[in-house]
Design goal:
single chain; about 325 residues; alpha+beta; Alpha-Beta Plaits; 2 domains; 4 strands; about 60% helix; elongated
């Protein structure tokens, strides 16, 4: 039996992935050193651990971040494969450099603490968290990672039907809570406030992360009524690379028999399909609905654990009796 041909990613496709990962890391580093660090917020992940170390010992966060990731990347190579880890190693190195660079810049130029004022902690927390979540999402969408807890989240998401945000939530909660007992502050009230801001950061980062990642994976279902169903079905299978099912139909008023084209596709393919249908048959009737989730060939993998199903004896005979 001949092996199936799997097309390799194009050079431009890979360049786009690395470019978008770099943009995401820029968002992350900017959000941290402009919004988070000046107010001494503690986020989740390895950066949160690095922040605790920085606030207590003065060691820059990026050094702790890099050292811990060296250990975690070994686990990532074992579980996620070399391809995923190449981009992760790239992201870890680039983010370390961006954190160092942006930290030096905002030590010289004004940051959010100086621009917004010390009483604008909530505003800085919200905006910084949104930028942080977007930065992580850009890395995930383009098959990369910012390292740290992201690696653990990616491993969990590989085997379980758990979103990236939820997978990161559990570990991040422990890291933020631990800052209550580690970071020295003037009084216990201020310590509790910092933890609360950490929880706000955690929620907003994960909501932003899931929103951006899931918006890229949204799926839709089409029902297309057209006399040129053959041309439309051919376009969908050859150009959109999606499966097509033809359903028999009969017009109630006209009594005319025909076919209904039904297909499942990604939401970002909708405009391409609409444009094609408009050229093939401008009079076509199209119904588009959102699908909460689609699992199977060409879409997301089913990650639920398969369990053995016990059937009764003489199943075929019992089915006949029921019918």
């Amino acid at each position: 039996m001949p092996k199936r041909f799997i097309p390799r990613p194009t050079i431009m496709g890979e360049f786009k992935n690395y470019f978008m990962i770099t943009i995401g890391l820029m968002f992350y580093a900017f959000a941290w050193n402009f919004f988070m660090a000046p107010f001494k917020f503690v986020t989740g992940g390895i950066t949160g651990i690095g922040a605790i170390v920085q606030y207590t010992t003065g060691i820059p966060m990026q050094y702790t971040y890099f050292a811990i990731n060296v250990v975690l990347i070994i686990i990532a190579i074992w579980q996620l494969g070399l391809k995923f880890c190449i981009k992760t190693i790239y992201a870890i190195i680039i983010l370390t450099l961006f954190l160092e660079f942006s930290q030096n810049i905002f030590e010289v130029y004004p940051n959010a603490y100086e621009i917004l004022g010390p009483d604008k902690q909530l505003e800085a927390c919200i905006v910084g968290s949104i930028f942080t979540g977007m930065g992580i999402a850009f890395c995930f969408i383009n098959n990369g990672s910012t390292g740290g807890v992201d690696i653990i989240a990616a491993i969990v998401n590989k085997y379980k039907d758990v979103s990236f945000g939820r997978a990161m939530l559990y570990v991040d909660t422990c890291i933020i809570t631990s800052s209550l007992f580690i970071i020295p502050t003037e009084n216990i009230v201020l310590s509790i406030q910092k933890v609360f801001y950490g929880y706000i950061t955690l929620v907003i980062v994960n909501v932003s992360l899931d929103y951006v990642v899931n918006s890229n994976r949204q799926t839709v279902q089409f029902f297309i009524f057209s006399s040129k169903y053959n041309e439309i079905a051919y376009y969908i299978t050859r150009h959109l690379k999606r499966g097509v099912t033809l359903l028999d139909s009969v017009g109630y008023y006209s009594g005319k028999e025909g076919k209904v084209v039904t297909t499942l596709a990604r939401a970002n393919q909708s405009n391409q399909l609409f444009s094609a249908i408009k050229q093939i048959d401008p009079n076509a009737l199209i119904s588009q609905t959102k699908a909460m989730a689609i699992y199977g060939n060409g879409f997301d993998k089913i990650k639920a654990k398969a369990k053995a199903i016990k059937f009764e004896e003489n199943v075929a005979e019992n089915i006949k009796k029921d019918n």
